[in-house]
Amino acid sequence: MSSLSMYQASIPVFIRMLGNLSAILEKAVAYATAKKIEPSVLINARLAPDMLPLSFQIQIASDMAKGCAARLAGIDAPSMPDTEKTFPELQERIAKTIAFLQTVNAAQIDGSEERDIVLKMRSGELQFKGQSYLLDFVLPNFYFHITTAYAILRHNGLDVGKTDFLGGR
Predict the structure, then answer these.
(1) Residue of 28, 93, 112, 137 with fewest CB within 10 Å of its CB?
(2) How far, in Å, CA of 69 to CA of 7, rounded?
(3) How many angstroms from the chain centroid is the CA of residue 79?
(4) How many CB atoms lie under 10 A from the CB of residue 110?
(5) Whole-model pTM?
(6) Are 42 and 32 in contact (CB under 8 A)?
(7) Residues of the chain whose pLDDT is less than 70?
(8) What are residue 118's DSSP bridge partners?
(9) What is the pLDDT of residue 123?
(10) Residues with Cβ < 8 Å from 132, sequence gap 6 or more?
(11) Cα 168 from Cα 102, distance rounded (Å)
């Protein structure tokens, strides 16, 4: 059995899960239309009053994926201003994120296990080595926001299940 590379543990995972999220959003649009629900109701929905709404969950998942790819590859991530307020705008953001991820290749990511990663946060700096950054910070955050987006829509009546979250094989 071969070892898992940094590339294999990141870029294909991000692309697959963002694609699954896009498919769930397509179902949400059809659901809103069928039930005559104003789309902004779903886009602004939250699981709890102190949580960020669906739109932000998608924006943060996008930021996690593109930021990780860029930091591990030592390149700049595309800037996305977090202004999406409609399903088409959110779908466009996901598509742009996937398109960026598809430009990053294994040669750029593999070997980044020991790359120094410094994140400037409101609470101060976080410092990681590349592998810890990916496995201990990015992937848990990425899955948290994808899962929360799924849960917000499911909570609001969208008929989705585990296979929608995991996607087809």
Answers:
(1) 137
(2) 9
(3) 15
(4) 15
(5) 0.96
(6) yes
(7) 1, 169
(8) 127
(9) 93
(10) none
(11) 20
Residue whose entry in the numeric block shows the structure tokens 């201990």: 136
Residue 116, phi then psi, degrees to nearest 5:
-75, 125
The whole-number pLDDT of residue 169 equals 62
**What is the topology classification, in CATH, of domain 11-164?**
Four Helix Bundle (Hemerythrin (Met), subunit A) (1.20.120)
Token readout for 23 is: 């498919």
Give the residue among 44, 72, 78, 76 at the shortest CA–CA distance from 58: 44
Strand-pair category, 116-121 with 124-129: antiparallel
Distance, CA of 65 to CA of 63 (rounded, Å):
6
Written as one string, the DSSP assignment of 41-108 is HHHT--SSTTSPPHHHHHHHHHHHHHHHHHHHHTSPPPP--S---SHHHHHHHHHHHHHHHTT--HHH
Tokens for 164?
Answer: 């929608």
Distance (Å) of CA 116 to CA 30, 50, 113, 157: 44, 33, 9, 43
